Amino acid sequence: MLCAHVITLFSEVFESFLAHPLLVKATDNKAISIALHNLRDFAHDNHRSVDDMPFGGGPGMVLMPGPLFEAVESITKDHDVDRVILMTPQGELLNQRTVLSLSKLPGFVVICGRYEGVDERVREHLVTDELSIGDYVLAGGELPAMVLLESIVRLLPGVVGCAESTFDESHSFAMLEYPQYTRPSKFRAWKVPKVLLSGDHQRIERWRARQSLLRTLTKRPDLVAGWQNVRESQEIYERLSKALNND
Ligand code: SAH
Fold first, then answer.
1. How far, in whole angstroms, is CA 150 from its chain's centroid?
2. Which of 42, 49, 92, 236 is found 20 to 30 A from 9 (Cα to Cα)?
């Protein structure tokens, strides 16, 4: 079972997230346990302060190193923890490959920053990974932590109904997923592509592979650079040959 420990000042933000059926199923099935740790429990003064003004001046407050170090150390003392992840807009951009590798770990800690962020010594001496969910700045690391957790939870065995649905989808192989349609087969003036109603699975597979290729090339040409990765290229090669195969 994967044990995720989240250090936050606003644990209430996680309530509805953890009550969602996907998360309930994952915790009931013992695929994951998510423990919330309140950073204020590791403050020492009467006001339970966890932040202070930045040395050198400037706006906002900075999370002090003391409570963050103590919070992480109190977790690692009793639990198997491989990584200490800081959510930060300065981190490596989160992608499906990182999500997959984190989903295979026994445990990790996620630190949610706030205000102007965390004291640099936390980043230098406590954190092992820095992750960003995109090139924009949020007020805190709670939403990024939930993004990270949800993307991981979907990949855990027995959580998403059909394992294939996480295998085929966008970014699994640095390719975008083909277009999906459901009933009705004609909605207003728009018909579902005929091939999908043909019942010919090989033709459907080829059509999907072509769409997947076309979409990636037109919507996300940047992903094509990632196809150089050897392990991926085998999969991508197969997809490409399927896509280029004549009907
Ligand atoms: N002053 C900092 C930003 C602080 S934002 C800077 O310029 O780098 C406050 C907190 O929100 C951060 O510590 C981080 O935990 C979280 N956060 C904001 N945007 C984020 C993003 N894009 N990805 C991950 N975490 C983010």
1. 6
2. 92
The dihedral of CA 232, 235, 239, 245: what is its sign? Answer: positive
> By the 8 A CB rule, do 7 and 71 touch?
yes
Q: From ligand 1's centre to the CA of 139, what distance in Å?
A: 7
Element (H, E) at 203: helix 201-219
pTM over 0.85: yes
Question: Distance from the CA of 246 to the center of ligand 1, in angstroms?
Answer: 49
Which pairs count as long-range contacts for 215-220, CB under 8 Å and 24+ apart, including other chains? 215/175, 215/176, 215/177, 215/178, 215/179, 216/174, 216/175, 216/176, 219/176, 220/176
Give the residues surrounding ligand 1 with Cβ less than 6 Å away. Answer: 87-90, 112-114, 116-118, 132-134, 136-138, 140-141, 144
**116 near 62, Cβ under 8 Å?**
yes
Task: Report d(CA 123, CA 85) in Å as an integer.
Answer: 9
Contacts of 50 (CB under 8 A, 6+ apart): 9, 39, 40, 42, 43, 63, 64, 67, 68
* pLDDT mean for each 10 residues of the chain (247 residues): 98 98 97 98 97 98 98 97 98 96 97 98 98 98 98 95 74 89 98 98 95 94 79 74 72
The CA-based angle 66-71-73, given to 5 degrees, is 95
Q: Which residue is it, tokens 């459907």?
A: 204
Give the bridge partners for 132, in sequence order: 93
The first and second tokens of residue 40, run together, are: 């204020």
**Is-contact 48 40, C-beta < 8 A?**
yes
